[in-house]
Specification:
about 25% strand, 5 helices, 5-stranded mixed sheet, 5 strands, alpha/beta
Length: about 170
């Protein structure tokens, strides 16, 4: 992976997001010179039975809270590809829109990556299985164990891709 790290000791924070309606993975990376440190990661959850508008509002609040806490400069987010479940894809698209709006409102640089691009950048294989992604994230960031759950690990990988592309 090629990195364009911040120059002159400048610290940059990257918010990585794996968007979803029920579960949205997030990660905060801090980049200074050639050092990358994982500051926070996890998932935002919404309740399946709640109305769509309330679920989207919850995602918006969660993203705002993580942004208020860490003040990221960059949003690195996975692009949505439509596969078998179009209905689920449309719901995720709405969640993604809420996240993008939060980033634009805060003046963040936005970087978008296809899932295969993230996998190729992290593992060298655009079709790598999730466990391989988790193990490579663990290795790259020198973590004691592979990050879980999957959505959070994916968000870390997406943030790592952003670390290589931010301006």
């Amino acid at each position: 992976m090629q990195h364009n790290f911040p120059k002159n000791g400048r610290i940059s924070r990257i918010l990585g997001i794996d968007p979803g309606l029920a579960t949205t993975g997030f990660a905060i990376l801090e980049v200074k010179n050639s050092e990358i440190e994982l500051k926070d990661f996890g998932v935002f959850l919404t309740r399946k039975g709640d109305p769509l508008a309330e679920r989207l509002h919850q995602i918006s609040k969660d993203v705002a809270e993580i942004c208020d806490t860490w003040n990221p400069h960059v949003l690195s987010i996975e692009k949505l590809i439509f596969v078998k479940n179009v209905t689920n894809g449309l719901l995720v698209t709405q969640a993604r829109g809420i996240i993008l709006e939060n980033a634009v409102a805060r003046g963040m640089q936005i970087l978008e990556f296809m899932p295969t691009e993230v996998k190729a950048n992290i593992t060298g294989n655009g079709r790598a299985p999730k466990i391989q992604m988790q193990k490579m994230v663990q290795k790259i960031l020198h973590l004691a164990e592979a990050p879980t759950p999957d959505d959070a690990a994916d968000a870390i990988a997406i943030a790592l891709c952003g670390a290589g592309k931010e301006k």
